[in-house]
Amino acid sequence: MRNMNETGEKMKRYIGKVVVITGGASGIGCEVALAYYREGAHLVIIDKDIDNLERVNQDFEKKRVMSRFADITVENEVKRAIDDALERFGHIDILVNCAGVAGEGIGFDQSEGRDWDECFLVNVKATFFLSRYIIPIMKKQKSGRIINFSSSFVNSSGEMLPHYSASKTAINNFTVNMAREIAADGITVNAICPGLVWTSMWERLEKVTLKKLPAKYKKKKDFFNELVKTYVPIGKEQTTTEVAELVLFLTQDSVKSITGQTIYIDGGMSIK
What we know:
The chain is α/β, with parallel strands linked by helices and 272 residues long. 45% of the residues lie in helices and 14% in strands. It contains 9 helices and 7 strands; from the N terminus they run βαβαβαβααβαβαααβ. Helix 1 crosses helix 9 (240-250) and helix 5 (113-141) packs parallel to helix 6 (162-182).
């Protein structure tokens, strides 16, 4: 069989590949990192959460994983992190722009200028910085895979988090333009739009906004579960595991013709 070695064991798909993941120390990013690690990849995990990075250092084999503290909204820090990754591993095959923030305000009435600044700085500008320094490396290699994380909120209930929704809409447009520009270099670029996935980002959002929400939302995940019930046709939240599996599918060497696409994994939230 094509995916088996001579002993009948399943072959690992990403042996020898170097994957850069932002926000890879928690949430979806961490699950993506684990999935690549199990498939034999070398990882560069960039995050600014020291505690989670230390946990990553304990969970992964240091020979194959480089964890790097960096503020990806600062261009010089991004450049240094990529330079260090290139010096360590010699090449970069895959970039997963997973780091993101959702702000704090619920709806336009509670949305503040700082929410808009933070969302566009982390979700959009940082994605540009990472792409800016990794694409030239991929061009020299004549190959590469880039995944940008967007959100199903660009189409569904976007009014609830207007700053977040707007920043992810920008990512979708950025993905299309980037994909078109570098397609001839053997590089694919796609955006993934998860729906409602319970992660530390949602947990922080609930904690901050709980006082502003109606009294019926008193327990952890009450508000989140209500959103799932209201907006997700299949009636279930999405998991970090299924999102990670989609990322790995799109970044395989054999998947060469899927580029410039915005792919939803949201239980039907985006169905119009």
